[in-house]
TrEMBL record:
<feature type="domain" description="M23ase beta-sheet core">
    <location>
        <begin position="67"/>
        <end position="161"/>
    </location>
</feature>
<feature type="region of interest" description="Disordered">
    <location>
        <begin position="130"/>
        <end position="178"/>
    </location>
</feature>
<protein>
    <submittedName>
        <fullName>Peptidase M23B</fullName>
    </submittedName>
</protein>
<dbReference type="Pfam" id="PF01551">
    <property type="entry name" value="Peptidase_M23"/>
</dbReference>
<dbReference type="InterPro" id="IPR011055">
    <property type="entry name" value="Dup_hybrid_motif"/>
</dbReference>
<dbReference type="InterPro" id="IPR050570">
    <property type="entry name" value="Cell_wall_metabolism_enzyme"/>
</dbReference>
<dbReference type="InterPro" id="IPR016047">
    <property type="entry name" value="M23ase_b-sheet_dom"/>
</dbReference>
<dbReference type="GO" id="GO:0004222">
    <property type="term" value="F:metalloendopeptidase activity"/>
</dbReference>
């Protein structure tokens, strides 16, 4: 079991295997797959961070009956978030939906939209071409519901579609243990 307080610096040694994840007194949920337990790094973000909520979960602290369309990765505010692909940035596109914060964006690449939610700072402009490793922005709490704390919401959909079409983004995150 992992317990951290909101925004606290993470101690990778606390990324122990568990299918549940705690932030303060709030319980988040993994899919019960050992592959999603522990701390990870990814081409999409810097550092070592635990997953707090898996794709497809229908239980979370702030809702009981919806499906989570992405993967939430716990990270302190200000963590650099980078593009994992070569593509075109779309800032606040109409297809994205409003529940990802005012600094929401997606990176369109190869028929896929990589949705990045809850950034606190944007480092790119609408229409900008990015390469792998380019800084998109910094993590934050923008649009996070009910104080669930700073995290990155990462989602993948076929280009131009809404959240209802989201697919499991795990492969696209290209996580490795860290
Ligand atoms: Zn999320």
């Amino acid at each position: 079991m992992v317990r951290t307080s909101f925004g606290a610096a993470l101690d990778p040694s606390k990324c122990t295997a568990s299918s549940e994840y705690w932030r303060g007194n709030r319980r988040f949920y993994l899919n019960g797959e050992a592959s999603q337990e522990g701390c990870f790094t990814s081409p999409w973000f810097k550092g070592s961070h635990p997953v707090m909520l898996s794709y497809g979960r229908t239980v979370a602290p702030w809702y009981a009956s919806h499906v989570h369309h992405g993967v939430d990765v716990d990270m302190p505010e200000g963590t650099p978030v980078r593009s994992g692909v070569a593509g075109t940035v779309h800032v606040r596109p109409s297809t994205m939906g409003a529940s990802y914060g005012s600094k929401r964006l997606l990176v369109r690449s190869d028929g896929r939209d990589h949705v990045i939610g809850h950034l606190g700072e944007l480092a790119v402009a609408d229409g900008q071409r990015v390469q792998p490793g380019d800084l998109l922005g910094r993590s934050g709490t923008n649009g996070c519901e009910q104080q669930d704390g700073p995290h990155l919401h990462f989602e993948v959909r076929p280009s131009g579609t809404g959240y209802q079409s989201a697919v499991d983004p795990w492969e696209s995150l290209r996580m490795s243990r860290a």
